[in-house]
């Protein structure tokens, strides 16, 4: 059965490319930029939604997150979600 990749779902949900966001996060982290927290939260919640929901539902939940700044990943950490994405994407 054909299905969307997690990276494609992430882009449909967040409107951003995950590889670009990860590169931005890495650059910001290396330079001590405060924007890293925002990027980290966007990646964390976007990946969580990509793994958990269909893109339409995920997009609604992500939009609500952008308004409120609040999100719940059921205890899934940034690192665990990124590691899982790397495995399913063949990056590791």
| Count of domains | 1
CATH class: Mainly Alpha
Please tell me the CATH architecture by its name.
Orthogonal Bundle
Radius of gyration: 13 Å
Number of helices: 5
Strand content: under 5%
Task: Quote the CATH topology.
Answer: Helicase, Ruva Protein, domain 3
Structural class: mainly alpha
State the order of secondary-structure elements, H for helix, E for strand.
HHHHH
Rounded average pLDDT:
91
CATH level-four homologous superfamily name:
Uncharacterised protein, phage p2 ORF12
The biggest beta sheet reads: none
Helix content: over 70%
Envelope shape: globular
Number of strands: 0
Low-confidence stretches: none
Helix and strand topology:
Blueprint: H1 6-14, H2 18-30, H3 35-52, H4 55-68, H5 78-88
Helix pairs in contact: 1-3, 1-4, 2-3, 3-4, 3-5
Describe the structure.
The protein is 71% helix and 0% strand. It is mainly alpha-helical and 92 residues long. Helix 2 (18-30) runs antiparallel to helix 3 and helix 3 (35-52) packs antiparallel against helix 4. The protein starts with 5 loop residues before the first helix and ends with a helix. It comes from Lactococcus fujiensis JCM 16395. This is Structural protein.
In short:
This is Structural protein. InterPro entries: Gp12 (IPR048803), Gp12_sf (IPR043077). The protein is an all-alpha fold and 92 residues long.
